[in-house]
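## Example pair
The file below holds two records. Each record gives the amino-acid sequence first, followed by its structure token line.
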Amino acid sequence: MNPTPALPPSTPTATPMTPALPPTLTTPLFGLTIQRQRFSEARDSLMAVAASRGQPSRVVVTPNVDHIVRLESTAEFKALYATADYIYADGMPLVWVSRGGKAALPERVTGADLFVALCKDCMTENRSIFVLGGMPGQEQALLQGFANSYPGLRVSIFCPSMQFTPDGAEADLAIAKISASQAQIVFICLGMPKQEQFAFRYRREQTQNNAPLLLCVGAAMEFALGQKRRAPLWMQGIGMEWLWRLASEPRRLWQRYTVQGMKFFPIALRQWRAQKNN
């Protein structure tokens, strides 16, 4: 597993002034305010945001167990992460822990599933997307992959270098490309924390000609285009998708799902006790 990138000391924490979002039910969990929606409701909510040109950009994050563990040790970044406009529980363990409280989450809403669903909806509604991610030089191959999997979808792609930083020159270029594309939805597939840092920078700085919706979705594009295989549905349903991913990429993911994963248990126990006391 690659070492966790260091967080820049200048990470901003201020929340931009934005109009209120339509009210939705939420669940407080691990210091975050998580949307208490089923997948179909989340899909409809986000497509409504994508259609709202002229409004401030909205940021979507989808925390899993790895995210929760890493956020525990980075208080400044956690404070920023918590300002996301929509937070959905990607990891099934988050749903399980929520059941110890009075406002249980109905189901997980994964970034990978949102990616596929919103791409299909954009095809139907003739909306355009922008993808920031992929390996350098892959743009044409990825465009062909989208043409095969989502024929007719209007898509623009920028694959930055491995040295991409959310406050660097490539990030400036990405913002310019997003603006030029006129995309309604931006999928940021850079991995945590780079994707979130870029999304929050974009939301803070772009006040005109901005994309309405930005989703931080990690490896979702690779799953959607068949570059990586997702776990069978039955494994996803019982919360064992992590085991499938570990078996698929053991060298890259063993530390995340063993050493790092074990750190989740005391965090979850603390959350469970807090819920019982309230």
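Second record, same layout:
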Amino acid sequence: MGGPGSNSDGPSPSAEDPNGQKGEVGDNEAEGVWSPDIEQSFHEALAIYPPCGRRKIILSDEGKMYGRNELIARYIKLRTGKTRTRKQVSSHIQVLARRKSREMQSQFKYLPQDQATKDKVLQSMASMSSAQIVSAGVLQNNHMDINQGIRQTYPKPSLWSGLVGQPDPDIKPFNNPPFALPGQSGLGGAMQAANLNAVASRTVPAVPATSAGFNQNANVGPPWENRQIASQKLRLIDFSAFLEQQTSEMDNYSKHLFVHINQSNPSYNDPMLESVDIRQIYDKFPESKGGLRDLFENGPKDSFFLVKFWADLNVNITDDAAGFYAVTSQYESAENMSITCSTKVCSFGKQVVEKVETEYARLENDHYTYRIHRSPMCEYMINFILKLKHLPEKYMMNSVLENFTILQVISNRDTQETLLCLAFVFEVSTSEHGAQHHMYKLVND
């Protein structure tokens, strides 16, 4: 693959034929050796880029159109430095699809299900393309095994290094484990794989907001519902962590954003949030009373979110002792209340430091706004950023960040009800476009 624009003639019809035709390629296809690092990158790419038939995917920052197999081949090249062509990717998908089909069909022989049910599942499988069959295993209901991804043994300079416009809208929060074709046992697992379309579009059911002003349309709900970080009682508008320092001209200050979320312009065209099983991240946060598990069990369940940040550390810190490190956040509610914001910094799942702040409502345009403005970072966080900056390589920074998390809980000061609970995990951004993030709904299915 010569570069981003190579193999631009589109995906191989045999690989993603919407009619399910899978071509004739033997299991011992002459496609070169797929070493473990290539295989891992291949499965990571399957999770990032969903099957799209003969359609093409546009990378927004490039404005170019790519077939899915082109993007997978491109990803392998960026991740491993090794070349796999679009046709080799197509061939590999077909081989894996046949193996997966045989595996699931063989399971049916020993299941105590009626023949009609088995026939229905087999018929569903027959209508799926090779890409859909393979991706069904990788998606695994959008629930990732985080610990396996973290403990992988391959060198990992950065999962997204070199990806243009990182992160892609379909990026998952954690690495998929190598050879990510989980063995779904029994008929239920096969039916999950067969029902790929339902899995791929799976979202948390919409619950109409009940607070005045939040239920703008009783049938549709507000545009941020299930699309942004928002519960029935509180919505995040803006969140940023930044550094301000003097420039060479002593009267001027520059502002650098380490991370940033802006939700000020919700739209019904925004994608629905994907869901992540909260049990996968319990060990990354405190287990004691007031920890993530305890909070989730007490609910309300619509208040819990995971945010994966790709933090922008591409800043020249002129003086470690100077500069102003701070966090600004803004929230909105339909009711007047006082809120408490607890921010816990955690290392290896244990709380290191906690900051608690109280904010009061301001009535603005028929809703109440809460602003925690330019709240200074604690000394621990400042030192952590400086030490991270002094590491020579980004993969070293990411290795440290694997065990660093932040839990932020916004609650009603008077009733102690949880209004929002945000679990933050981090990597270092490799994009030229600064800080990036991706948001997920935390569920327990």
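Notes on the second record: The chain has two domains: 36-200, 235-443. The longest helix spans residues 86-108.
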